[in-house]
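INTERNAL TRANSFER SHEET
From: sequence group
To: structure group
Subject: HTH-type transcriptional activator RhaR

Please process the attached sequence and return the structure record in the designated field. Keep the field labels unchanged so the import script can parse them.
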Amino acid sequence: MYRVLIVDDEPVIRNGISAFINWEKEGMTVEDHYANGEEALSALESLSFDILITDIKMPLLNGIQLMKQALVLCPWLKVILISNYSDFEYVKEGLKLGAVDYLLKLTLKGEDLLAVLHRSISMLEEERRKDSEWNYYQQGALYLDRKRVEQEIKRYIVQEQTFPESTVWAPVWLEDSYTCVYLMLDAAEEWRENYGYLYVQLLLEELQEAFYLQIREGCALLVSESSLFVIFPDLEGEVEQQLGHWKQQLEAKWGISTSVGFVKEQGVCRILKGYAESSLACQRRFFEGLGGLYRGSRSETNPVQTLTDRELNHDWAPFFEMIHNGDPASSAVDFALERWKSGILNPGEVQLEAYTLLTGAYQPHEDAGTLLSERHELLSKTETLEQLASFMICELEEMGKSFIPKLSDNGYSGQLITKALEYIAAHYTENLTLQSVADIVHLSKSYFSHLFKKQTERNFIDYLIELRIREAKRLLTQNDCRIYDVAGAVGFKDVKYFSKVFKKITGLTPVEYRESMK
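Return from structure group:
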């Protein structure tokens, strides 16, 4: 609806003009209660109008003076002058100022007024169309400029080139203080598994577009399969608070969780520093949990942490000893966590070290290569230290359940002993004897004993007891059942004998062991 303002010091004229037109039918609304220019100007300062119908001669502020000041407030305003024959000099001045037309009071007709109103509306619509086209062009040009800046920044980041002190392509705001933001989509792998790779890419592009709609100046780059790097001029107020609000809006709108690292920088030459520092800040999510907002430190240099020989050559013997002895996987992983929580390694280095530990733990297994190749990728996708620890515990516990040592011979003899080991693993809680297992692989008792020791480097009964004690350790740490029940569950009929064997192997009684693991 177009808004029309009628101004005349004679109420009968105002009411007559108002009565000429069916305003609602013509797509207009009208206000006709202003008796002079000052009243009308006051209304224009607080309300927006599209068409002004004004008498020329009025007290306090005449129609020409009103028109001049009204066009300053509303440059789009279309003015129709109402005059007498004696006002012609004023009319000429009004037309020079841009009035659409003038109408004589004495001969004013409804159809003449309506024709001028229609012409005014046509002019308004044409101007709006041109403004819309210009805005579209400007938006398109702005979008292209942003894309050019993005490509330049991405080229320097990918090639790890140092930014020069000044560049032709850089916008002016990059010379001043700006904020670098590294945003990571949490649980990105889960999103890809549930909705597909393309969905995640489209989601990141939507986040990018949302940034451009909200922030007039700035850049947003897709820098990985699940990350955005955003740069924008410093905002008024506390940056962290505003980023937190923006982050919450994104998460609420798209139903996602994000982790954000940010740092303030100044000058084009420090963009690479800003990228590195904001990315490093975002990596804290690995140690502190997903969904955080982490402020990085602006430094003159980007120091590379050099680990000492002692830190590099960490003593992992206790870890492997716990695994070999069948201690709870959680105890071995807790030992590793003491090192990883110190922060001397970055997330990638922690994941690599965890992989190395799993490799060493799987060494005695026949299918170690296959097992590790299947799980390496899963390990590298853990997003937090807590996830990595849980993954390792599950893997080590699964390994303990199916513990079959690597044999020295993969030929026919090895196949027979492997079959025997698989049978023992499935029935070790039962009353197994050397003879009963030899019968399974169709060998004599003496030859089976000889072959078993040759392939596994231990006696049959020692291997069986070791397997039972490993399971007893697991049960002792997982529940508070009686020692008598634990002994029976792992294949010992005599609880006293079980306790003696357990202490002989571990150096602790079952009760002491349970207490030590708490």
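Handover comment: The longest helix spans residues 110-159. The longest strand covers residues 177-185.
Transfer complete.
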